[in-house]
Design a protein that fits this description.
The protein has 496 residues and is of the alpha/beta class. 32% of the residues lie in helices and 29% in strands. Strand 25 (422-424) and strand 26 form a beta hairpin. The chain starts with a strand and ends with a helix. Residues 5-226 form the CobQ/CobB/MinD/ParA nucleotide binding domain.
Amino acid sequence: MAKPIMVQGTTSNAGKSFLAAALCRIFRQDGHTVAPFKSQNMALNSFITGEGLEMGRAQVMQAEAAGIAPSVKMNPILLKPTNDTGSQVIVGGEVRGTMSARDYFAMKKTLIPDILAAYNSLSADHEILVLEGAGSPAEINLKSDDIVNMGMAKLAKAPVLLCADIDRGGVFASLYGTVALLDPDERAMVKGLIINNFRGDKTILDPGVKMLEDLTGIPVVGVVPHMTVDLDDEDSLTARFGRGGKKAPLDIAVVRLPRISNFTDFNALERLDAVSLRYIASPAELGSPDAVILPGTKNTMDDLRWLRQSGLEAAILKHVSRGGALVGICGGYQMLTDLISDPEGAEAGGEIRGMGLLHGETLFYGEKSRTRVTGVVQGAQGIFAGLNGAAFEGYEIHMGRTTGDIGFASLTRDGASSPDGMAAGSVWGSYVHGIFDKGAFARAFVDCLLKAKGLEGTADVEDWETYKARQYDILADGVRKALDMDQIYRILEEGI
């Protein structure tokens, strides 16, 4: 069975996912077979495996760092919030239903057999498992029913590395306070502390590090510097949303819907030199972009209402009336149709008028579509006519079905061909997530926009996957230098 080690954090967004990915890469570089594991993940960014099962993107990223194919065994429970008090519950890649927070907490311990089955299967096939916690282990109101932090560490008998983000301030209090709130048996499982995202002269930090070690009796096994790496983010705490667009020939605005999901679709575009990509949430922020993108959402109907009430729908329609480009992906594509109906209550229930830019209707069903696809564009129009013939690949994950003048692209799903998406003028929509990840498609898309501005085409661009592989090596190199890896290996060998 594999030797486990677990990364927990004092807060959400403390850097757990990236540190776990770095350890996966380091162990792989050192010749070990390694896999990530997170028993329960709450995020709207998800992924469809080759088997058509759904899992969180953080463990996909970590699997890529480990050099292995993603598997739902790495994330047996995924919670996708549908509103402030409820989530869609996905177990083993399959939807179990939508539950209120109270109902889920009342039943979640019954999922421990599912968690252990996934964990033990992974453990049998690898030398090392890198586990990731969620939020903080010091959430004392939740500890009695915990299955993802110390509760999971106990099930796996995993030593714990506890990290905190110094960029947020109060790092010593955060680490000390978290340790102090743990039960004695839990405290004994914490074998190392990590200060993450440090900028500046480390020698100034050293006296505080020594005092922290004396107070907790736990060694600080590393101070990880702030690093510029470009990898997929897990959730809506991403710093991407707050970034201003860089100076570039093209300005692309992505609408930051309240329940935005799979915004990782646009990371491949963001890194291109010709593209300034920014997230906007009001008409005042829209400006005069070269293209607007409506992304995926966990609740198409409610987010369309928000789009309408915020004034962004009117601003986007005005943009299109002037010949501006508009793209909808998954939920964003559904918004572009004439009518959205939900007779079974899969989302909000009832029906709502769509934006009417693509002539078709979307009907929600209880069953979710989950499949990986390849495709070729064949029905692009207007400034996007140059996309015709461009190949892409990605995955579908949606509750609705859209009918109408379908034919933006020809897809291959599970060996069978079928049409996808619609196009009208310089507006198109598709159900395919990850459509921009292949370099050739991203280049064709950007070239269409550049040509519309009378500018020359771009140089060749790498596939997003090739680019990410280099980013994992950069991440691993920086973390390896910052951590006491000899001590990490001793912790791994000694266990708890």
